[in-house]
Amino acid sequence: MIEVRDISRRFGQLTALDHVSFRVEPGEIVALLGPNGAGKTTASRIIAGLLAPSEGDVTVDGISVRADPNAVRRRCGFVTDQPALYDRMPLRDYLSFFGALYEVPAPGKRAMELAIMLGLADRLDTRLGSFSRGMKQKVAIARGLVHDPPVLLLDEPSAALDPETALALRTFIVSLRARHRAIVLCTHDLDEAQRIADRVVVLYRGRVAREGTTDALRAAPQQTYLLTYLGDEGAAHAALARAGVTAQPASANGTPAVRFSAEDAASTNPAVLRALLEAGIGVLTLTREERTLEDAYFAIVSQAKQA
Amino acid sequence: MRNALLIAWREIRWEIFGDRSAVLRMGIFAVLPIVFVFTNRGPRTNDVALFTLALQSALFPALSGVALIASTFTQEKENGTLIPLLATPVRDIDIVVGKLVGMILPVFAICIASVALYFVLVSTQYGVTRVVLALPFGVLYALVVLALLYLLTAGSWVLIVAALVKTSRAGQQIAGLLIGLSVALFTGLGFAAANIADGWALVGLGVAMLASDVVALEIARRVWRREEVLARI
C-alpha cells in the first residue's frame, strides 16, 4: 500500500509538488494525470525512493521513504517512458543483472520466467539494441517486475507504442491488479486512464486539483442528452423552449439533433417528448451522453487554471 | 561491496569488451611502446630518454581511460540508463565505486601491459643490463602505481564533472582539458624525476595524488547522491 502524506518538493526556486496527498491500496490502479510540469514524474520518483520530499513523507507498506529509502526501493518496480536499456547486453544478462542487484535468489531463472511471461523467450540471448520499441518497453517492464514488487510505478509506459502493443500492455497491467499490486500510472493518455484506472488524481502545478474514482470524476452535475428527430428545425427548437429546455443544435450522422442538459430527467424528458410530439416533430432517439474522462479532465484543469 | 563488483563486472564485460571500438581504441595504446622504442634508438638515447619513455608507456593508456570514464557516465545520463540503476536498492557509494572500478581495471591492465611491452622491447634493443641500471624494477613498479593513482584521481574528478554537466559533449570537453593539463604536468615531472637519482619526486607525486584521490572520491560520493544526479537529468 502507498500512502503519500502532504509531500512537497522544491528544486531551487521551483516548487514541483505542493502539499500532495493520496493513497493507493493493493489491487488498485491509480492514474496520475496532469499537463506537462504538473509534478507527476516527481511524485512517482519520490514514491520510488529516487527523490526525497522537501516536506511530508511517503510510506510504502508502512516503510517511510525518508527513514529507509532502500527498503522502499526493494518494494517498488519503476518503469519510465523511455525503456533506457543497456543496448549491448542480451536480455538474459540484463534481467539477471538487475535481479542480482535486487537480490533475487535465482536471477537467471527469474529472467527466464519474465521472458516467457512477456513473450520474449525466443530473444533471451539477443542484444537489446536490436529490439523494437515495443519489445524494449516490455523489457523495461520485466526489469520493473524482476523482484516481484508489491508496488509498481509506471511513468507513461505506453508512450510511443503502437496500438496493438499498447493494448497488450494495458491488459498486462490489469492482470497485475488482479495479483494485488498497488499500481501508480502516470499518463497523458486519458483513454488509457479511463479504461484501466480505478481512481484518478489530477495534478495541476504541483497541487492535487481533483481526486476520485473515474466514475465519480466523469459524473457531471447535470446529465446531457442527445435527441435526434425528423421535422422542421425551427419548430423543434420552439417546442423545446416551451418545455423549458435550452437546446444546442447538434448533428448525429446527418440526422438533425439537439443536445440539452437536465437536472431532473424524470420530469424534463417526458415534457420534452410531449412538446415535440404536439409540434408534429418525429422523435427518433433520446440518449444520455456519457461524459468521458477527457471531458472531465479538461473541466478540472480549466477550473484549476481559473483558481 | 557485492553490488559494486556486480556493477564493475557489467561495465567491463558489456561496455568495454562489448564495444569493439573501445577495445580498438585501447589497443592503440598497447602499440605505443613499440613506436617509442623504434623512434628513439641510436647513440642519443640516454637514461633520461629511457625513463621518460617508460613514463609515457605507463601513463598514456591512463590518459585514454579518463576520456572513457567521462563518456561512460555522461552517456548513461543522456540515455537515461542511470535512472533504473538509481531505482535499485544499491547504495550510492556502490554505484560510484562500481562504475569507477569497471572503467579503471581494464585501462590499468593496459597500462601494465604497455610498461611490460616497453621493458621487453627496450631490453631487446639496448640489452637488459643497461636497461635495468636505467630503470630498476622499483621504478617500473612506481610507474605502474603512479598510473593507478592517476586513474583513480582523474577518474574521480571526471566523475564529479560528469555528475554536474548535462551533455556528454561538455563532459568530453572537460575531460579533454584535464588530459591536456595532465600531459603537460607529466612531461615536466618526468624530466624532473629522471634527474633526481633517488626518485623522491615520484614518491612525492604519488603521495600528492593519493591525497587528491581521497578528496576526489569523497566529493564524488557526495555529488553522486541520487538527488543530485536526478536533478540534472
Please characterize this protein's 3D structure.
The complex is a heterodimer of chains A (about 300) and B (about 230). By secondary structure, chain A is of the alpha/beta class. Helix content of chain A is about 40%, strand content about 30%. Chain A is built from eleven helices and 14 strands. Chain A has helices at about 40-45, 70-75, 90-100, 105-115, 135-145, 165-180, 190-195, 215-220, 235-240, 265-280, 295-305; strands spanning about 1-10, 15-25, 30-35, 55-60, 65, 75-80, 150-155, 180-185, 200-205, 205-215, 225-230, 245-250, 255-260, 280-290. In chain A, the strands form three sheets. A six-stranded mixed beta sheet of chain A has the order 6-7-8-3-9-10, with helices on both faces. In chain A, strands 2-1-4-5 form a four-stranded antiparallel beta sheet, with helices on one face. A four-stranded antiparallel beta sheet of chain A has the order 12-13-11-14, with helices on one face. In chain A, strand 12 and strand 13 form a beta hairpin. In chain A, helix 9 (about 235-240) crosses helix 10 (about 265-280). Chain B has about 230 residues and is an all-alpha fold. Chain B has helices spanning about 1-15, 20-40, 45-80, 80-85, 90-125, 130-135, 135-165, 170-195, 200-225, 225-230. In chain B, helix 3 runs antiparallel to helix 5 (about 90-125). Chain B is elongated and about 60 Å long. Chains A and B meet through helix 2 and helix 3 of A and helix 1, helix 4 and helix 10 of B.
